[in-house]
Write a structure and sequence with these properties.
alpha/beta, Rossmann fold, seven-stranded parallel beta sheet, 11 helices, 20% strand
Length: 297
């Protein structure tokens, strides 16, 4: 199978590409930097230079593939220093929706599948793959995929746990570590008992491959291994490794990240495990958080 992947040099995209290549599939990946994509090229992937703004490149690459996996998302809001994290996120979400519509349009009229990446934000605790996305959620990846499916496009969504972890993670958990170092306390939000889900990046990658190999029979798959990790335990693990106090704090302690820190993002993956015969084998989130390398130590 020839698979086109956006975000092929990213944390999740690169793991998917490696997994597909090892399984004997052909991979073409979109990458802004040829240098960053060099290891994947050396492993056998074809690299198309471009970005999410290069709509015609996206359209052509998708048209030439047997399947498309969309993992790219502009995460510049994470590193915002001008307090514009959320506004930037909204702009990037709109771009993401446009890209999904473009990729789906290139596949329309065929049975070639499109797997779109989304998250668990806005779902109720314990949500399953059959639960619909929250229409108020600002990221519209899944909404865009469902709109394509209604037009006959073979589109589905992989919902990732909020922590796709492993050594080298640069997502949400490193933000918590940074806040803890800057404030001198590893905090959890007072008067809440929220949980996050977690999945090791290699386990997450395998969900995409298995879904493609089995024909993408579902609307939604859950790449979730640790289904409900109390946020307080995440804070405790960080505090223990950094030697900091672990204490409750108001939401304002987390700044623009407060909505994520206080969110209940815990879901079941029972259906995905059964349908794909998926058995997560990577380390757990709390185990990774106990590794010194997670903190650059």
């Amino acid at each position: 199978m020839h698979v086109f992947i956006t975000g092929v040099t990213g944390w999740v995209g690169s793991a998917i590409a490696d997994d597909l290549l090892r399984a004997g599939h052909r991979v073409t990946g979109l990458a802004r930097s040829p240098e960053k994509a060099a290891p994947l090229a050396a492993a056998g992937a074809d690299i198309v230079q471009g970005s999410l703004e290069d709509i015609e490149i996206l359209r052509q690459a998708a048209s030439a593939a047997d399947a498309v996996i969309h993992t790219a998302f502009n995460h510049d809001f994470i590193h915002s220093v001008d307090h514009q994290g959320f506004p930037r996120f909204l702009q990037n979400a709109a771009q993401d929706q446009h890209v999904i519509e473009t990729l789906g349009g290139a596949l329309e009229g065929s049975e070639r599948p499109l797997l779109v990446t989304s998250g668990l934000s806005g779902l109720t605790r314990g949500a399953t793959e059959t639960d619909l996305p929250n229409p108020a959620a600002p990221r519209k990846s899944e909404t865009a995929a469902r709109a394509l499916a209604a037009r006959g496009v073979h589109a589905a969504t992989v919902r990732l746990a909020p922590s796709v972890h492993g050594i080298g993670d640069y997502g949400f958990v490193p933000i918590l570590i940074k806040v803890a170092r800057e404030t001198g306390v590893s905090a959890y939000i007072e008067d809440t008992e929220n949980c996050w889900s977690g999945v090791h990046r290699l386990d997450a990658a395998r969900v995409y491959r298995l879904a493609l190999e089995q024909g993408v029979t579902e609307d939604v798959y859950h790449a979730v291994a640790d289904e409900a990790v109390p946020f307080k335990e995440i804070a405790s693990a960080i505090g223990r490794r950094l030697g900091l106090a672990v204490e409750a704090r108001p939401r304002e302690h987390f700044g623009w990240f407060a909505a994520m820190a206080g969110a209940d993002m815990a879901a079941s993956s029972a259906r995905t495990r059964t349908l794909l015969d998926w058995h997560p084998s990577g380390s757990s989130l709390l185990r990774d958080l106990d590794e010194p390398a997670c903190y650059g130590l």
